[in-house]
């Protein structure tokens, strides 16, 4: 819960903007720090302007995706017999005590599209493992990764070929649990699907457990913002920048813990 709260409060988020703006107002109304308040608010404006521009957001996230490209042909898969797709999150909408709709978040939907594309590329006998857990889920809710599984089925992936892992609640758990699961099925080569910003940390976490996944990152939510659209503020760009900052912090934390 604390990790999710921190993730939701990183630069680029609404909570960070509100709190930082409040600090700026306090400084601005101080007789001793009025000038610092002006600088703070201008800095905050420029920060959010930059994060909201797709061109700048892509530049911020670029180091996380250097050298990573999606799978284009069967040869690049090097005989992979499985696809592992990591769930981002599930959006839940309630109406009253019993009516509930669960659907993949935007990041999860993009991962589902990439996993379905790779599935068609490798063949219909390929095993697809959907991994993701939610510690805050209630008994009335489906497994966290089930929404992503259902999306894959709609995209043409056979239900019988999908294996659901709802116990892995973070990248470290994905690596520990899935490497064990794959080895129990004598699968040594697999394709890993997750967001471009998350792929580096996921790859290194899996390799630290002795696996060697083949990366196939999913599209970015701002890939279609080209030309002049790349320099027009976009809420998706803010979310993309926030995701990149989270994964930079995640890489540092995982390195500190010895998980990479």
Would you kindly provide a written description of the structure presented here, covering whatever features stand out?
The protein has 260 residues and is α/β, with parallel strands linked by helices. The protein has two domains: 2-65 and 226-257, no CATH class; 74-215, HUPs (Rossmann fold), CATH 3.40.50. It is 49% helix and 12% strand. The chain has helices at 2-7, 14-28, 34-52, 54-65, 106-122, 146-154, 171-184, 196-208, 235-257, and strands spanning 82-86, 90-95, 99-104, 127-131, 162-165, 190-193, 214-215. The strands form two sheets. Strands 5-4-1-6-7 form a five-stranded parallel beta sheet, sandwiched between helices. Helix 2 packs antiparallel against helix 3 (34-52), helix 4 runs parallel beside helix 9 (235-257) and helix 5 (106-122) packs across helix 6. The mean pLDDT is 91.
Helical residue percent band: 40-55%
In CATH terms, the superfamily of the largest domain is HUPs
| Most strands sheet | 5 strands, parallel
Mean pLDDT: 91
List the strand order in the largest sheet. 5-4-1-6-7
What overall geometry do the principal axes of the alpha carbons give?
elongated
Quantity of strands, as a count: 7
Strand percent estimate: 5-15%
**What is the rounded Rg?**
20 Å
Low-confidence stretches: none
* Order of helical and strand elements: HHHHEEEHEHEHEHEH
Secondary-structure arrangement, i.e. CATH architecture of the largest domain: 3-Layer(aba) Sandwich
């Amino acid at each position: 819960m604390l990790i999710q709260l921190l993730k939701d409060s990183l630069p680029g988020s609404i909570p960070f903007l509100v709190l930082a703006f409040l600090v700026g107002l306090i400084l601005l109304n101080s007789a001793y720090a009025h000038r610092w308040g002006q600088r703070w608010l201008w800095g905050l404006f420029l920060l959010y302007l930059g994060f909201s521009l797709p061109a700048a957001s892509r530049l911020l996230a670029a180091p996380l995706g250097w050298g990573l490209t999606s799978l284009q042909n069967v040869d690049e898969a090097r005989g992979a017999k499985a696809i592992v797709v990591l769930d981002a999150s599930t959006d839940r909408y309630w109406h009253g005590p019993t009516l509930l709709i669960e659907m993949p978040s935007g990041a999860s939907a993009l991962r589902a599209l990439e996993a379905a594309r790779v599935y068609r590329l490798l063949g219909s006998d390929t095993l697809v493992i959907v991994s993701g857990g939610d510690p805050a889920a209630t008994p009335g809710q489906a497994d966290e990764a089930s929404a992503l599984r259902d999306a894959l089925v709609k995209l043409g992936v056979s239900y019988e070929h999908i294996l659901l892992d709802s116990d892995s609640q973070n990248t470290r758990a994905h690596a520990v649990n899935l490497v064990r699961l794959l080895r129990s099925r004598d699968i040594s080569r697999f394709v890993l699907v997750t967001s471009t910003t998350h792929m580096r940390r996921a790859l290194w976490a899996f390799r630290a457990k002795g696996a060697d996944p083949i990366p196939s990152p999913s599209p970015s939510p701002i890939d279609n913002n080209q030309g002049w659209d790349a320099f027009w503020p976009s809420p998706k760009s803010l979310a993309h920048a926030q995701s990149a900052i989270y994964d930079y912090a995640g890489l540092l934390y995982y390195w500190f813990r010895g998980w990479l």
